[in-house]
């Protein structure tokens, strides 16, 4: 099987349902950013510290779920043949919320903003958080143009919170303190 189609030679790509869109289309931007995030999570996994290997399985699960999100974002609003993969039935948002609550209970309480960083693993997880936020903005822009799978947006919104909590927890695992933003007033109570 050849991996090139030559459709892209004219700046276009075919999505699920056979619609052909310019590669600059908001739908392509949305699932392209999810693909970027998925690759970044792969980098996070490849660079986990010894003490953070406990995160490997759940990060690989997140990669699976991100692929489902990207697939659903690639389904045209006019496509009646394909159904969304990502649904509330898969309980992915509930799973993330449990992880967030668990990690939040294992880290020191904070009142001020913290800087993204700390250990190498935490830094990579913070980077994942910011790419997730960009993906969310791309999905919202798509949602303003045409219908999407709303559950994908809900999952991506929660995923950025997960990466924040996981980054803080990974600092704890590596014995590294979070760094508070020096000009932050107390914002978390």
From TrEMBL:
E.C. code:
2.5.1.17
Q: Which Gene3D superfamilies match?
A: Cobalamin adenosyltransferase-like
Q: Which UniProt keywords apply?
A: ATP-binding, Cobalamin biosynthesis, Nucleotide-binding, Transferase
Pathway as given in its UniProt record: Cofactor biosynthesis; adenosylcobalamin biosynthesis; adenosylcobalamin from cob(II)yrinate a,c-diamide: step 2/7
Tell me one GO biological process term.
Answer: cobalamin biosynthetic process
GO MF terms listed in the record are:
ATP binding; corrinoid adenosyltransferase activity
Domain Cobalamin adenosyltransferase-like: from-to ranges = 3-169
Residue ranges that the Swiss-Prot or TrEMBL entry lists as coiled coil: none
Read off the InterPro entries from this record.
Answer: CblAdoTrfase-like, CblAdoTrfase-like_sf, PduO-typ
Name the catalysed reactions: 2 cob(II)alamin + reduced [electron-transfer flavoprotein] + 2 ATP = 2 adenosylcob(III)alamin + 2 triphosphate + oxidized [electron-transfer flavoprotein] + 3 H(+); 2 cob(II)yrinate a,c diamide + reduced [electron-transfer flavoprotein] + 2 ATP = 2 adenosylcob(III)yrinate a,c-diamide + 2 triphosphate + oxidized [electron-transfer flavoprotein] + 3 H(+)
List the SUPFAM superfamilies. Cobalamin adenosyltransferase-like
Q: How does it assemble?
A: Homotrimer.
Q: Which family does it belong to?
A: Belongs to the Cob(I)alamin adenosyltransferase family.
The entry's protein name is Corrinoid adenosyltransferase
Upper taxonomic classification of the species?
A: Bacteria, Bacillati, Bacillota, Bacilli, Lactobacillales
């Amino acid at each position: 099987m050849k991996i090139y189609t030559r459709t892209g030679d004219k700046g276009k790509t075919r999505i699920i349902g056979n619609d052909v869109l310019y590669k600059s289309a908001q739908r392509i931007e949305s699932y392209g950013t999810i693909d970027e995030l998925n690759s970044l999570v792969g980098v996070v996994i490849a660079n986990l510290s010894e003490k953070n290997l406990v995160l490997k399985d759940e990060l690989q699960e997140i990669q699976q779920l991100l692929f489902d999100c990207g697939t659903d974002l690639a389904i045209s609003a006019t496509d009646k043949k394909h159904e969304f993969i990502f649904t509330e039935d898969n309980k992915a948002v509930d799973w993330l919320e449990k992880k967030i609550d668990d990690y939040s209970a294992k880290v020191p309480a904070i009142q001020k903003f913290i800087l993204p960083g700390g250990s190498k693993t935490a830094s990579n997880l913070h980077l994942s958080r910011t790419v997730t936020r960009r993906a969310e903005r791309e999905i919202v822009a798509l949602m303003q143009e045409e219908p999407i799978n709303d559950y994908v947006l809900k999952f991506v919104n929660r995923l950025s919170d997960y990466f924040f909590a996981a980054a803080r927890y990974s600092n704890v695992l590596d014995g590294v303190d979070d760094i508070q933003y020096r000009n932050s007033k107390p914002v978390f109570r």
